[in-house]
Request: fold
Amino acid sequence: MGGSIIGERFVAMSFGESHGRCVGIVVDGCPAGLPLDESDIQGLLDLRKPGQSVVMTQRKEEDRVEIISGIFNGNTTGAPICMLIWNKDSDSRPYEMIKNIPRPGHADYPAMVKYGGFADYRGGGRFSGRLTATLVMAGAVAGKLLKRTLGIETVAYTTEIGTVKAGNITPANIATRYSNDVRCPDPAAAEKMREAILQARKDGDSLGGVIECITSSLPVGLGEPIFASLESDLSKALFSIPAVKAVEFGSGFAGSKRRGSENNDVYMIRDGKVVTKTNNAGGILGGLSNGMPLVIRVGFKPAASIAKTQETLDIAKNSQTYLEVPGRHDPCVVPRAPPVVECVVSMVLADHAIRAGLIPPVLK
Amino acid sequence: MGGSIIGERFVAMSFGESHGRCVGIVVDGCPAGLPLDESDIQGLLDLRKPGQSVVMTQRKEEDRVEIISGIFNGNTTGAPICMLIWNKDSDSRPYEMIKNIPRPGHADYPAMVKYGGFADYRGGGRFSGRLTATLVMAGAVAGKLLKRTLGIETVAYTTEIGTVKAGNITPANIATRYSNDVRCPDPAAAEKMREAILQARKDGDSLGGVIECITSSLPVGLGEPIFASLESDLSKALFSIPAVKAVEFGSGFAGSKRRGSENNDVYMIRDGKVVTKTNNAGGILGGLSNGMPLVIRVGFKPAASIAKTQETLDIAKNSQTYLEVPGRHDPCVVPRAPPVVECVVSMVLADHAIRAGLIPPVLK
Amino acid sequence: MGGSIIGERFVAMSFGESHGRCVGIVVDGCPAGLPLDESDIQGLLDLRKPGQSVVMTQRKEEDRVEIISGIFNGNTTGAPICMLIWNKDSDSRPYEMIKNIPRPGHADYPAMVKYGGFADYRGGGRFSGRLTATLVMAGAVAGKLLKRTLGIETVAYTTEIGTVKAGNITPANIATRYSNDVRCPDPAAAEKMREAILQARKDGDSLGGVIECITSSLPVGLGEPIFASLESDLSKALFSIPAVKAVEFGSGFAGSKRRGSENNDVYMIRDGKVVTKTNNAGGILGGLSNGMPLVIRVGFKPAASIAKTQETLDIAKNSQTYLEVPGRHDPCVVPRAPPVVECVVSMVLADHAIRAGLIPPVLK
Amino acid sequence: MGGSIIGERFVAMSFGESHGRCVGIVVDGCPAGLPLDESDIQGLLDLRKPGQSVVMTQRKEEDRVEIISGIFNGNTTGAPICMLIWNKDSDSRPYEMIKNIPRPGHADYPAMVKYGGFADYRGGGRFSGRLTATLVMAGAVAGKLLKRTLGIETVAYTTEIGTVKAGNITPANIATRYSNDVRCPDPAAAEKMREAILQARKDGDSLGGVIECITSSLPVGLGEPIFASLESDLSKALFSIPAVKAVEFGSGFAGSKRRGSENNDVYMIRDGKVVTKTNNAGGILGGLSNGMPLVIRVGFKPAASIAKTQETLDIAKNSQTYLEVPGRHDPCVVPRAPPVVECVVSMVLADHAIRAGLIPPVLK
Reply:
C-alpha cells in the first residue's frame, strides 16, 4: 500500500509537506462512538510544537489541528477521520540554495535521485520532522480510544541527551515528565541535559538522545506471531519518526550480554494475576504482549541541521562545496519527541487491540 | 493481512509448526525468468540447521527443502513459489508436561491466553525458532534475485556472544565468516565465543549476542518516506526472528551520544560516484538508501530454553512450580542466525527494489 | 485496510460526508513528474455535478476541487495527493425526520445498525452519491497518467435508461457523448431517454439504466491471475459506486446463452498486431488484458429517493409509517455517472499498469 | 499484495498449477477452536470434481485434500491452515503443441506476453479451472466457520444452461440441488439442460450458463462503505473464478429497467424482525447487508475448450493456423461450479464477519 499508510484495522494515511499547504492524516477504522474533538489532539500537539522553550528551535508554529471529517455530534462515526494543520507561510527562499546541495545527514540526496528532481525539497518536504505532527494527530485518537476502552496508557520520556543520562526514574517523576524543558523525569539530569543542549547550540552543533516508553495495563496476547509481532509493528512505526536509528525492547542490547538464567523472567502470581518477577522481556514474549508493562527504548541521532559550516557536494556542478544549513532548527529533537513516541505506540496498539477483538466496532 | 504475511510486491506467507507436518512459505511476486531450484535454497538452510557443530543443539534435522509450485523448466514463472520442509517425527511427549507450565522467556503463556488453549504448543508451535527456516527459504529466493539483477549482496556475521566482542572485522575475514562455528570474522574472538558458549552449556545456561549485517551495491532511493522507510520495513522483518530484542542502523545508540558535526556524513565524489566519507547513517537517510553500504546490528537475547531448573507457574493449578525445560536446545542461537538475518534483509530489499521499479516483472 | 482504501500501488483513500465539512480523497503512488493542477480534475467534476440540465437534480453544488498536497511547481512529486471539495452549507434539517425512519432503497437502516446510531445520516453521510466526486478526483489523476504514459483512454456513455435502449453506437458519436443531457451517443435514443426521465420525475418516481465503458490502447497482460484479475479489481471498484447492482464484461450474461464456437474470439494479425476478430471477451482473458478494447456494462438501479410517498418503518416506535423523502434528488443518476465510471476504471488500470512495471516511478 | 491473496482478516493465498506438483491454498485468520479435518472439505471437493456424470469431462481426478498445517487435536489453532491436493501425473505432452498457438478464449496469449514465455502453460497452468479446487478448500473452512458461529448458510444452483432456463425454484427443491447432474433445483429444466449439454458435446461445442446463489441468516451491517461494499468484495472474489463474465445482485440488470417505486423494498416487521416486503436489493443496501437473504447471479461464458477445429495464430510463425484443443474437457463448466460459488461467497462473508467483530478470535 506504499509508505504513506500504516495499520490494518486502525489505519492511518499521511499527506502533506513541510512547506506545502498543510500536513495531515486520515485515520480509518476508529470505532464509532468515541467522544472526540480538536482539544483531544491539540494538547499533545502543543507538547510537540516548536518554540516552547530555549532548548527548542525558536520557530513559532501554531500547529492548530482541524478535524474535517468523521465526527458527528461530538463522536466518531466509524467513518475516516481526516485531520490537518494548515501551514503558515514559511520562508522557503533559503531552500532554493540547497536544491542541488544536499545537506549532510538529511534525505535531500536520496530524495533527489528517487524522485528525479520533482520532490518538494522546501523545508525537507515529506522528510521533515514537521510530519511527526501527523503521527501525533493519529496517535492522539488511538491513545484516547485505548484509555477509554481498555485503560491502556503510554508514557514516554527522555533518558539520555548526548552523554548525559538520567538516573532516578520513578512512576512519580514520570508523571511530571512534561514539567521541564527536556522531558526527563530525573530533575537533576534534566538540568544537565538542558545545559548540554544550550552548549551544543552555542557551538553551532546538535545532540542526540534516547527516549524510553512504557505502556501499562496492556492485555495479554496482543500481537500476531512472526511478521506482526508487537516488536515488528512497533519498530516499523517508530522508525517512521525521522532521526530514529535504534529501537530496543526490554533488556535489549544489554540483554544480549547476559545469560538465559539472568534474562528469563520468572512467572508468579501477584494480586491474583500472572506476572513476572523481572521484566527483561519488556512485556513481549514471542511477539505477544504478556501482560507486563511494555518497555521500549528509542535512539535518536543528533539533529542533522547544524549552524556550523559543513562540507558537501554541489550535485549540479559535481564539485565539493561548503554549506551553512538555512533556517532555524532544533539543537536537539529529543525534547519534542516524547509525545510523538507516545502517539506512535498508541497507534500500533490500537490497531492490534482491534485485530485481537478487544475493542468492538461500536463503543457503548 | 495478519501476521503470517510480509511484503507488498515480493510477498511471503508463512505456515507450519515446529512439530506439525511441515514448515513452509509461499513467495509471490518473484519476477518470471529467475533460474531457481532447491540447491539455491539448500545451501543457506544448511548453514542454519542444527547439529553443525558443538556450539549448537545436537538435535539432527535434515531440513531438506522442496519447491512444490512456481517453477517450470528450471525458472520462476511469475506464479507463487511454495517451499516447505517436511518435519521428521519429533518426540513431542516432553511438551505434554509444559502444556500448563509456561517456560520462562518463551511465548507459552501469552499464546495460551491468546488462543484459548488451542495453540499447538509442541516444540513451541508457531513460535519456534524452527520457523526461521521459512524465512531462509523466502530470503534465499530474494537474495538470488537481488544478486542477479542488481548485484546486491548481504552478509551477516557474529560480532558479540555474551560479553565477548569481535575486534578486527575486515572485508577479507567477513568473506570467511562461515568457516568457524560461531560465524565471527575475527578468529581470535571466535575462539573465545566458542569457549563461552561451551561453558554456558556446561552450566546449564545460555548466551545471547549481536549480529551485524552489511548490504553492498544498494542503489540510491530504495524505501518510501514515513511508514515504509527502509528502517521501518527492515526492523519489522528482523523482529520477526525469535529472540531478537534490539535493532540499530549505522551508528545507532552510539550515535545518540554524539554531536551532529561528528555524526553527519560528509558527501564527496569517489570514482565518479556520490559517496559519504563516513557511514554513520548506515546507508539510510530519511528512510531511503543513499548508496552507501547498509549497516544493521541485531541484538539477540540469550536462548530462553536452559537446562537449569527454573521457577515458574502451573497455570492449571495456579501455583508456583519448578521446571526443567525438555528437549535438546541451542545454548546460544546466534551462531545459527547469520543466514537468517541475511535472508530476512534480502526479502525486504527485494520487495523495495520491485516497488521502486528497479526489477522488471520478467527477467531477460 | 478497511473500506476507505483501494489499490495497491496507485492507492486512494476516501474521506468526508455528504453534509460534513468536505468530501476528499488522498492518492498515493502516482509517479513523480506528472503535470497536474486543479483544471485537470475540474473538467470531469463539472460533468458529474448536479444541476447541469433538466434531467438532473436542481440542487446547485459548485464542487470546486482543491489540491492540498503532493504538487510542486505544477508537477506531481511522488508524495500523496490530497484533493477535496468543501461542502457548501447544506440544509440538513429535513434529515432529522429520517433519523429513525429508514428510506427504502437507501443504506439508512443497515448503517443505523452497524454504527449504533453514531453515523452521520445527514444527506446519506458516507453512503451519499456525493462521495462519487471523490472517485472522480482520484480517477482524473489516473486518467491523465494513463493517457500521457501509455495512451490509454476510457470512455463511458449511457446505453439504457429505464426501458429505452440506445441503438446506433459508433466511435464518432461516442466522442460527442457529453453533448446531450443523458450522455447517450445515439441522439434519437437520447431524446427518448430525456423524455422518460422527465416523465418519471413528473410521476414523483425515478429510473435506472445502463452505462457502457470502453478502454482502448490497453497493453497486453495487465491484471494478475486469480484474485487480482482485471474483472475482479474493476468490478470491486465499480460496485463502490452507489446504485450499481450489476457488472458484466464483453458478451457478459448474453454470452452465457451462447455456444463456445460462437463466443470464442478468433486470433488474427491486423496491422502487424495480434488482435481478435470479435471481442466477446471484452478485452480480458484469464483475468488479463489481451490488447483488445476493454468492454464493460454497468447496471444502475433506479434512484432510491423518490418524491412519491412510500411505506416504511419508524424504528424508534417500531411501527409502520409513511415517508416523503426530503431534499431535491436526481430522478435518474445515470446521466451524471459516465465520468464516474470512466474515472473508476482509470483508477484500477493505473494501479495495474504500475504493478505490471509499465509506468515508471518518475516520468521523464 | 498481488493476485494470489484475498481477504483482510480471513486471508487466503493460492499456489500451484494445473499440471505442476499440486494446487493449494493457505488460509490465515481463521479463529482458533473450530473443529476441522479433511472430511469437512472433501465433501465439497467431491461435488466439484470432474467425472461425476456424463455432462462433465471424463477426466478422473481424485482431488484428495491434505491439511498440512494449522490443525491440532482436531481443531484450528489460529495458525495458517495450508491445504493442498497433489496432482496425479497428467499427460502434458499435448500442451507442447499449443505452446505457441494460443487457444481462443483462453489466457494463453496474454499469459505468454505477460510472463515472457516463462509461464507454465501445461493444462493452462495458473489459469486452469483446476485452481477452483483451492477456492473450495478455503471456502469450505469459511463455510463451516459461518455456519457454526452465526448460522449463516450459502446455497448455489444452476438456473440457466445455454438457452434453457429453470422455472420453478423453491426452498425445497434448492435443498436437493445436488441430486441431478446439472445442479438445477427445477427437475424438468434440469433434464433439458442435461440434454443441451450432451448435444453441445456431440457437436464438439460447449455451453455457458448462470448460477444463482442465496445466503440466509446474514446479520445486518456486514460490509464497509465505498471500497469494501459487500458487492465490491463479493464480485472481486466471484470474478476470480475462471469463465465468470457477469455478476449481479438482487434485481440487477432487470432492476435497471424499473422505476424506483417498483424497485425499492418496503420495510416492515415480521416475527419481531425488520425485513423488507420484496428483496430487489438482494440483501445489500449501501454496500451493507440489510438482514434479507443475499441474492447473487453469476454468468459463466461457454467453456473455451471445444473439440471443433478453431482458427487461431501460430505466434512463433506469425501466421494463421487451425487448432484442435487437446485434452478432455467439460462441455459446460456450470454443473461443477455451484460448490465453487458457495465457497467463494463464504470466504468473503467470513472475512467481513470477522472484520465486523461478529466472530471472536477464539471459539468457545
